[in-house]
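Cross-posted from the bioinformatics board.
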Amino acid sequence: MSEETAILDVRAVSLQFGGVRALSGVTFSVAKGELFAIIGPNGAGKTSMMNCISGRYTPTDGRVVFKGRDVTDLKPNQRADLGIGRTFQNLALFGHMSVLDNIMVGRHHLLKNGFLSGALYWGLAQREELSHRRAVEDIIDFLEITHIRKAMAGTLSYGLRKRVELARAIALKPDLILLDEPMAGMNLEEKEDMARFIIDLNEEWGISVIMIEHDMGVVMDISHRVAVLDFGQKIAEGLPDEIMSNPRVKTAYLGEDDAEEVA
Ligand SMILES: Nc1ncnc2c1ncn2[C@@H]1O[C@H](COP(=O)(O)OP(=O)(O)OP(=O)(O)O)[C@@H](O)[C@H]1O
Ligand SMILES: [Mg+2]
């Protein structure tokens, strides 16, 4: 993949926690507009990989290149400013704040006049605030959470909270969004809704996606390409069909004896 078509290049990234090697020389590229999945057994290093991309962790070795720019040494908020959005494996909403305010938090770093909204800037700031409100309302419409926009986030069902978290991540206007198990703990209907939203934000909003997901049905249905991690190493990468029939992947998931049963 050339620099021009890749939105993200992960180059030989390793990550060490004391004696634990969470990632070992992992390399892959995500194309602009791609919906890319990272799968692998528990503890394989998937969340660690996301954290290296978002800036929460700095790789021990290797580089992370976003839109042609080396971001390895940038902080999470700097990477967010450049267009890397994310959700968390464990929910990170403000339970005592309304859905609307939670989403506005995602928008906050875009508010340029936040602290200058005194005498001189009040008109400008107001117009800006209004345009932010509109952008947030678009997101609320898109994710079909209009009916709960005033509700306290903490009172919502798990599935809805996940949706609000996604709304907040989109509010940041990312070019690339990182989704860590967006469907974990959801029932079938909630999963189908979430899958549809992910496809739409990819296809209609043009946001590139990296998704970690354990539900293989979902991964195979909606992702364009898949990378497989096992014990911190990339053991496969390819189209969903190729991954499903890859013997190494079957073994990683089920152990040698049960490998036949995946097919
Ligand atoms: N902050 C940390 N400190 C020490 N070790 C960590 C830390 N974060 C992750 N690890 C270790 O790194 C390895 C990879 O963990 P990681 O959370 O990236 O796996 P994962 O693929 O996301 O797993 P899961 O599917 O359970 O979410 C594990 O051995 C884990 O214990
Ligand atoms: Mg994880």
